[in-house]
Specification:
It is a single chain. Helices cover 51% and strands 12% of the residues. With 126 residues, the chain is of the alpha+beta class. The protein has one domain. Pfam families: DUF7691.
């Protein structure tokens, strides 16, 4: 699961409440291409994003938190959004694998949505 969230509104002081804070103060980001998926897929998505010029954030970083959640900072999302501006729909469509196209499109959408709000992104792998 992933959420676009104002990281200033949530606290990591109580890990048990972190996820519910993300649900309350954040916006759920559709994650269909990542459910279900094996953990190795994240590295493959990172590789594709890097080849497209988006390397300010990494899927591996976002999902390694299990139920505690991990995050992409507001600044990391902002930098990724700047990089994503130069990625064309044709570049994404040129990716050979359908699942990879869906995954990359989804991540780019997450980045754009969160950056427009000045948010970071928190992910939970389960």
């Amino acid at each position: 699961m992933a959420y676009s969230v104002d990281l200033d509104r949530i606290s990591r002081a109580d890990p048990a409440l972190y996820r519910s804070q993300c649900e309350r103060h954040g916006r759920f980001l559709p994650n269909a291409p990542f459910y279900p998926v094996k953990f190795w897929w994240f590295a493959e998505v990172d590789k594709a994003l890097t080849e497209l010029g988006v390397d300010a954030v990494r899927m591996d970083d976002l999902w390694m938190g299990d139920e505690d959640g991990e995050e992409w900072s507001r600044e990391g999302v902002r930098r990724a959004a700047e990089q994503a501006r130069s990625v064309t729909p044709e570049q994404v469509e040129a990716l050979e694998d359908h699942s990879m196209r869906e995954s990359v499109h989804t991540v780019l959408q997450w980045i754009r949505v969160a950056a427009e709000q000045g948010h970071g992104i928190v992910g939970f792998y389960h």
